[in-house]
Amino acid sequence: MARSRLGYSPALDGVRGAFMLCFMAFHFGLTVLTGAWVGINLFFVLSAFLITRQLVEERVRTGTVDALAFYGRRARRLLPALFLVLGFVLVYARFLADEAVRRTIGGDVLATLGYVMNWRLVLEGDQYFGDQGGATPLRHAWTLAIEEQFYVIVPLVVLVLMAVLRTRRAMTIALLVGALASAAWTATLGFHDVSDYPRLYYGTDTRAQALFVGAALGVWLAPGRSGRPPVPSRRVALVAGALGVASSVVSMLLVGPYSAWMFNAGGMLLFAVGSALLVLACVDPRPNWVVTAFGWRPLAYIGRLSYGLYLWHWPIRLLLGPERFGGSVAATLVVDSALTILVAHLSYRYLERPVIKHGVRGLLPRLRAPAAAIVVPVLVLGTTGLAVAGTAPAADVDSEVAAAATAPAPDITPDQQAYEPGSPERIAVYGDSVPYYLAERFPQDRFPGVEVDNLAEEGCDLLSAPVSWAPGFRMENKPGCTATKKEWPQRFEESGDQVLLIYATPLLIVPHIVDGERVWFDDPAYAELITDRLDTVREQALDAGAEQVQIVTVPCREASPEAIPEEFRVVIESSPQVVEEFKDPRHVNGVVKDWADRHEDVRLVDLHGALCPDGYRKKINDIQLFNDYLHFSPEATPMVWKWVLGRVSANWAERD
Fold first, then answer.
1. How far out from the chain centre does Cα 99 lie?
2. CA dihedral in degrees (9, 14, 16, 17; nearest 10)?
3. Which residues does 643 contact at the CB level (< 8 Å), separation at least 6?
4. pLDDT for the residue numbered 521
5. Are the CB atoms for 426 and 496 separated by under 8 Å?
6. Rounded distance, CA 129 to CA 566, Å?
7. Residue 518 forms beta bridges with which residues?
8. Is residue 560 classed as helix, strand or coil in its secondary structure?
9. What is the DSSP code string of 435-446?
10. Parts of the chain with a pLDDT under 50
11. Is the peptide bond before 80 cis (omega within 30 degrees of 0)?
12. Angle between helices 141-164 and 67-95 (to 10 degrees)
């Protein structure tokens, strides 16, 4: 609960309750709250504010900070409910979760118990907005890890600051400088595309800006030797409340999941300050509309349950799933919320509150060694987690891949042309990750007489203009991509390549930013942007000694929710036409074909026509075509190359 020497503040619990309800609603399917993830700032700010204020009070009152007592209070507050949830999660993982979840649950449990789950998710490259299928039921423990890491060091920080800086103003300024440093460091790391998201989203250092802001507010509003805290003017409190509420509403409704400016331009810090202003208004001892609204008793009670609500809502979400109620968001929201609140209430009343008030003996009066109440559950849960993980079968190595390595590559089309050895002898592929992996997996032993040079770059857009998955989203070319665009002609010339084989990238399906405007195929400037870029690549190839340029069309792909990663699915909801183009890239291929027809030294390799004569096919000749939403599978690679080389060889024969 939100307590201090000044007494209980219902409005603080009410704010926590309101934000928790919004956060749950988003996870339960209310996607209109697109920026609910920003609300995590409020919890970091509020926790840092309360803890720092209490520690400063203790230091002023007693002359020191009892760190062991502080850690004991934190353990009593946090561990009982966490142990219960971990036990539930292990049962869920053992009997209901899929094998992928079971394989990792041991490490997830240990990372949660060690309060390092955020860094585990960073190392795994976990996308917070990733699909719930296969998501660990302990993904949400990342926030607990960051807060616990803060709890470990904050007593020492308070003691050092009060000893070195002495004045409240100097301490507050020092902490705000820390917030600015964290924001600057976050911008330095930078959000360029979704692969950067885990590091920025889960990192303790990037999230520290909210903790610094909350700690600064806690220092400023902590009582002095008189026992009374500073009280800002009534006007300041009212303005702070209005700004805090406004920033919260804006963040919830308008900030998208992948808003780069949140990380690159101080957005996280901005909304952390907004949360601090809201907290400032809530602790004002004088009546005001913010205190009245958030101090509403039912809302305040939800706030007291917020820790349990947070722990339970995500496992319950995974347990029930989005399809249990026919996909109805309303039914999911009502049932999941009601069950989460009920479980959190029972946990708070019969587990958490007794331990908070009386320690472990509030539950086990006859326990002689209270430390055992921590050590034993940690050992049992950790061991059980590893045991449950051991019940999952190891990830199978697809036998079809091994078989495809030696079996003859089948034809894709009945009238497929054969590759003529030495026609041409050297081919360079250019494009993104699709040709990159095709070239990396090129079965040289199957196609004697030809060398393939890989000039492709993973994630490299053909265009240099920024990609815009959704309004407000901007993804620049990565440094490696920019470097490849500069260097490939020299590499082409040095290798003596004869043909440049351009793979039209699926990124052309996505709108781009041109002169500050988001453009797509409904704008003639977009087709012109593509053809101008292709003209440049063609000229670079001819100048580097290419005898011919060939371009591969974009094949159709599956666009079901299960096929497209959630990180892309969320942001393209505002542009459903992008999904249709992904399924059948007729606009992209139309531009590519028109461009090829304009140049006598350019030939078309219509892979889309070969693979998709009647639409998307999951398998061809009983071979899985794609191993994800985008890339050809290893077992399909020889088959694809056989068709492509046949077409390249036929085009080569037509050169002047």
1. 22
2. 140
3. 411, 412, 413, 416, 607, 610
4. 85
5. yes
6. 6
7. 513
8. coil
9. HHHHHHT--GGG
10. 1-4, 131-133, 396-405, 563, 567
11. no
12. 170
CA distance 104 to 594: 49
Position 244: which residue type?
G
Read off the pTM: 0.71
Phi-psi region of 397 (alpha: psi -120 to 50; beta: other; left: phi over 0): beta
Residue 12 token pair: 């603080």
d(CA 199, CA 169): 33
Pick the closest to residue 450 from 470, 476, 479, 420 (CA basis). Answer: 420
> Phi then psi for 633, rounded to 5 degrees?
-75, 155
The gap from C-alpha 24 to its chain's centroid, in whole angstroms, comes to 17
User: Which segments of 482-601 are extended strands (E)?
Assistant: 499-503, 512-514, 517-519, 548-552
d(CA 96, CA 90): 10
First to last CA, the chain: 81
Domains and CATH numbers, the chain: 10-390 (no CATH), 399-407+415-653 (3.40.50.1110)
**Residues with Cβ < 8 Å from 347, sequence gap 6 or more?**
81, 84, 308, 312
* The pLDDT of residue 379: 95
- Give 308's contacts (C-beta < 8 A, 6+ positions apart): 81, 343, 344, 345, 347, 348, 352
Q: Which of 585, 587, 524, 577 is nearest to 554 (CA)?
A: 585
Exposure of 87 by Cβ count < 10 A (0-12 exposed, 13-18 middle, 19+ buried)? middle
The dihedral built from the CA positions of residue 217, 221, 224 and 227, taken in this order, carries a sign that is: negative
Pairing of strands 619-620, 623-624: antiparallel
pLDDT at 472: 67
Please give the DSSP secondary-structure letter assigned to residue 300.
H
pLDDT of the residue at 469: 73
d(CA 7, CA 25): 31
Q: Give pLDDT, residue 2.
A: 40
Distance CA 213, CA 218 (A): 9
